[in-house]
Design brief:
alpha/beta; five-stranded mixed β-sheet; four-stranded mixed β-sheet; 30 helices; 27 strands; 40% helix
Amino acid sequence: MTRTQEIRPDINDGIDRKVLGQLRARFLKVNSGRLARAMQALSTRQQLVLKLLPLLLHVNHPLLPGYVSGTAPAGLCGFEPSDELLAEATRLTRSFIYKPRRGNPPLPIHGLFLMGSLGTVAQAEQSDMDLWVCHAPNLDSKALHELRKKCDLLEAWAATQGAEAHFFLVDPARFTIGDREDAQLTSDDCGTTQHYLLLDEFYRTAIWLGGRTPLWWLVPVYEEANYAAYTHALLSKRFIRAEEVLDLGHLARIPPGEFIGAGMWQLFKGIESPYKSVLKLLLTEVYASEHPRVECLSLRYKQAVFANHLDLDELDPYIVVYRRLEEYLTSRGELERLELIRRCLYLKVNKKLSSPPRNRAKSWQRLLFERLTGEWHWSQRELAMLDSRSQWKVRQVSAERRALVNELTYSYRFLSQFARSEQTGSQLNSRDLGVLGRRLYAAFERKAGKIEFINPGIAPDLAEDTLTLVHSASAEAGGETQWALYNGSLNGQEWPDFAPLKRARELIELLAWCHRNGVIDSSTRLSLHPGSSDLSEFELSNLLSSLQQTLPLPMPPVAEEALLHGAEPAEVLLLINVGLDPLKAHSQLNVHMTTGRTDSLGYSGVRENLVVTLDQVSLNSWNELLVSRYDGPNALLDCLRDYINGLSADGRHPRLQVRCFCRNRAAAIAQRVEELFRDVLVSLGSHRHSRYLLQVQQHYHVLELQPGQVSHSALADLPALIEHLGEEQADYSPLQVDRFALEGEDLALILPLGRPQCIQVFYRLDGQQAELSVLDEHNALWRQRLPYRDEQSLLTPLQRFLQSVLYRRNALLPLDNPLPAAALEVLYYEVLPAPPHRARHLERRTPPQAPVSHPFYDVQAIVEPADQAHVHVTLYCNHREFSELEYGADLFAAVARHILAQRRTSERYPCYITDLDLSRILGDGQAETIHYLRYKSELEAALNNALQNA
């Protein structure tokens, strides 16, 4: 490497034009070296593209690529094509004759620069060409439109030559103030606010192809902060001519917001392709850590040229970045991060040093990396491992993922802290950081039930040719069973000697992990050792197919809109009885059951529940894959509850699929569960607070369907259900009865009839007895069994009681109440036919009409609160008062004696409460009718018991 004395021009002492010429020559020497390196790695046709582009922008010729019109902007400042270049153009079009411009007309294109990895150690066959076309600031909109069209045509022509080119129009005058025509100035640019960081990258990586050279080249680093005055002096004192230079601005100060923006962009890309982003992320961290005195790499590059340190290897853009990161991490003692950076750089360059070169001669990139890896003391084994990345499988990818995720997570925390410390957390930055944090969380955060994605752009394919799936008892977990996945095809004697790739308590968790990470694909051969499970190869194959169909890969990217809201389920796959036969005992005995009762939740005469376990696989709107297992007596209800509670607040439902592949009645089981979920969803959408009644075996379950707060009550038998349905409701709550619940019971007919603002009375005659049922205005159930003589004596007392309750409640309400209690309608139905036949239908009945002459015996009760949850009761029999103050514990006995004394005969038929005041207990008249009926039942029971004993 040749060295001369460092050039340190001083504007105050006067600047020698010869010195400025030397400086420009040094930059051009580095430039020509980089351009030669770029050409070496290109095909002949790609080289032709790069050679011809300056000429094609310099001229307008109808038969040359890029021709738009004779008036389209053309002409590259200071450009004169060589004879060799003109000969190449003639080969394209024989009629082309170059006509030099006469005089010194102003030319519209001031400079042409090549950006990207061409000419660097990371140049690859697929590297694209990002070209900056710097044009005169005075081009009007028509000229700009034609220039844009010309560039588009050149891109299309380059593509025919095997070159991917992207042209970006740059007005230097607008660019220096941060106003950019192309929002995206490189194909790898974030496209928003990183003006100075983009300029930094331009100055240290761009290859000049023609036109004016950057004015920035001629400004010493120590004058960067004085850039405007220094360049003004250079131009005004005619040290340089304005038509020879291009001014894109300086790098004296980089606003801190740019580090946040650049870091967020690289983190966003790093979630999918971490190797490509980690180097730039760490460089952003280095810059931010130096703020406000940032020594950006372009200034180091310029200083090296001024010092005549022109070694192309050490000035290579990627090596310059690496050396800066190495310096930073070594000073902090972060050697693990340094090793990761080295791997990222090595994999980016993609020169496989463990294999001999394709040709005998080694490329300059290979020689450079042999020196670097020698510095790093990498062994041949380490090189071979990195070179085989395309064959990496689960073990290597998992280890590498940890390092990459740690780095991305660290970068996010650093950016967040930097934003806070520099007070650059504008509303936009805060929002974007929040969204980015959610992206990282969704992609990498571990949590219970979440399937970990282990391959964020680390290896191209994790699929294994052969795997062995084993179900066994876990010695470490006290006999708990587990599923494990092993490499290769292993028999029962072999697999215990190997370490599994992955273990899981449940099969679906393991299969979902395999599918999400592409470990199993359509060509993978699986050996199965089912152990104590009932899993068959048929079921295993169908489980995998269900996962593949429900969750096709690759998953689409998550839209930003989805991350602005909480995650909600998008796809749900329910898998019933995985690895389990619900009728195993019958299968083993080779018994085939024939039964008319085919409901999967109450199968056969003994009402067996065939839904034993459920595995829920859910993909949410953040692309998180979650697996939940439900087993035990309430498995189905727990699953249903969690499913509904997970729905979005706006009522949208995920796509639900239910599958079952067990040995017996699989299709019927899946259909039953799917119908149940859909019925409940319909019920949920019908009212903001509805209920759903389900029967599983002999047990009943009532689901309270309040969005986000679904709960269920398990009830052992019919009396427990009736008691539960008699609980008061805060408002009207419809009750949907499952299609198979309450088979043959009259409640199956009664319960679905609930109506708001309506009290409905149902009765069923059974010989000397009658069953009275009432659904009140909130759809609470009251039921009472009474002696039966005739319909008049059965219904009239209840009718009178309800009328008095409504009267009392109405009297306590304000007169402007829009729905007074008196507006409640009372309807009557008879349940038919009478026992012992099953209840089949209801018939509407008119309310009982008692003749005016018919004598009624009024029994009024007033109930008031007492100490310790007790109450005081006062009874009035035809307006005669019976008080606990007078009779104490004998109150009901005294009333019974009085009533019997009033009767013409000594027959002890029941006595009914005809009026009841609960105002001191229930308040201002808003109490539900069920409260009155409940007290009525208790008081009547006490009174009639006293009648029988009197």
